[in-house]
Design brief:
Layout: H1 22-33, E1 39-42, E2 48-51, E3 57-64, H2 76-86, E4 97-104, H3 110-117, H4 121-132, H5 134-137, H6 145-152, H7 156-165, E5 166-170, H8 174-182, H9 191-211, E6 217-219, H10 220-233, H11 249-258, H12 261-268, H13 273-296, H14 301-325, H15 331-343, H16 358-368, H17 378-381
Helix pairs in contact: 1-8, 1-9, 1-10, 2-6, 4-7, 8-9, 9-10, 11-13, 12-16, 13-16, 14-15
Length: 387
């Protein structure tokens, strides 16, 4: 049988947010992303604020839009944010400041895009004139009119600065931005674990400062140092995670009935039903793992070749030893002894621990390719190139 003919086993993918609220997620993202020397605060100046060592500031309002649209033209969240920014001290309204309105999942609105594009004086002035019209503001005291009026009360100079400093950012999933920081160096199957750990570290650190009645502001360099230490200590990459559960009984039965070469090799040494069932299960899981690990970049393909060579060498040496020490056994007994010695071998792959079934499964893959065998006469019984 070819690789494509064997049953395929599937895996699942965890969901977004990883159990945390949006603000800790954004805090973590910035701690991983900003330039050296920057600090990030949580709910001090705004939901999130990025403090540049040169004095620049980015204020961020972070909106989770699982229902509704904070980016819509008449959004109370949008106008409350604009009014709050307009009430900030005038010293903060300089070109080194940015007002970021972050929305997830992806949302759109005509007004937020117009604000985002109003970088020059003419566009900002046109928007401000529009905001002052009765048609735009609506009936006094109704809907978002009070918030629009509060924004305008700050005066033209302040309103124009807020408009020109406004920027919109919207994306489908805030977790993706963090995983992109980790994916280059960490195995894909462990990314959610590392993401959750990184967010948790950021949240715990800022919560600790709040409990101590200190300013909730974190240094990005210190955070990255702590995260690297965590990764070194809790190195999920040292374990190749199983990508499958145990195959269903009907999958095992179907493969047994088709009698591929590795099954016939076991029949030749009169393997028990239990041993046969375990062998098929190990074979299917190892085969699925190899494909998934290679596809996700968890291993280098050539490393599997190196592992196979080590397994073949161990098989040859064990077979030779058994010939010397167990020569009195008949061929099937000797073959079963050899199989058990081989499949109980513990061996890493690229320095990473393997699932308990993997070496046994890989030995059956090698037996299927006739590169090893269990019967003393396996080369004659199952010659290479035979069907």
């Amino acid at each position: 049988m070819s690789l494509d003919e064997y049953p395929k086993l599937k895996t699942s993918v965890p969901g977004q947010y990883l159990g945390y609220g949006l603000q800790p997620v954004r805090l973590c993202y910035y701690l991983m992303s900003v330039a050296k020397g920057c600090r990030i605060s949580l709910e001090q100046l705004d939901d999130i604020a990025i403090h540049d060592p040169s004095g620049g500031l980015i204020f961020e309002q972070s909106k989770s839009a699982m229902s509704g649209n904070p980016a819509s033209d008449r959004s109370a969240e949008l106008w409350k944010t604009l009014a709050n920014w307009a009430s900030l001290p005038g010293s903060l309204l300089d070109p080194a400041t940015a007002f970021r309105f972050y929305v997830t999942p992806l949302k759109v609105g005509d007004l937020v895009h117009a604000l985002h594009d109003a970088r020059d004086a003419a566009k900002a002035d046109a928007l401000l004139k529009k905001f002052k019209t009765k048609t735009f503001k609506g009936k006094k005291g109704v809907g978002v009119e009070p918030l629009i009026s509060k924004f305008l009360e700050a005066g033209d100079e302040v309103c124009l600065k807020v408009i020109r400093l406004f920027e919109l950012q919207t994306e489908e999933d805030p977790i993706d931005a963090i995983t992109q920081k980790l994916v280059v160096t960490l195995p894909e199957e462990s990314l959610d674990q590392y993401c959750a750990a990184a967010i948790g570290i950021a949240k715990d650190d800022v919560d600790s400062l709040i409990r101590k009645k200190k300013a909730p502001i974190l240094d990005a360099v210190v955070f990255r140092r702590k995260l690297r230490a965590f990764i070194r200590k809790h190195d999920f990459s040292k374990l190749l995670v199983s990508t499958t559960g145990a195959p269903a009984q009907d999958q095992i039965a179907d493969l047994l009935s088709s009698q591929p070469t590795f099954v016939r090799q076991l029949l030749a040494v009169e393997a028990s039903d239990t041993l046969m069932t375990n062998a098929v299960s190990d074979f299917l899981r190892a085969m699925a793992d190899k494909v998934t690990w290679a596809d996700t970049g968890s291993i280098v393909n050539s490393s599997l070749d190196e592992l196979d060579e080590s397994l073949i060498r161990h098989h040859a040496m064990t077979s030779d030893e058994l010939s010397d020490t167990h020569g009195h056994l008949d061929a099937p007994q000797l073959g079963r002894q050899l199989y058990r010695r081989c499949v109980n071998l513990t061996m890493p792959l690229e320095g990473q621990s393997l699932p308990t079934y993997f070496v046994a499964g890989e030995y059956n893959c090698l037996a299927d390719d006739r590169r090893v065998g269990w019967h003393p006469d396996h080369k004659t019984l199952f010659p290479k190139g035979a069907s």
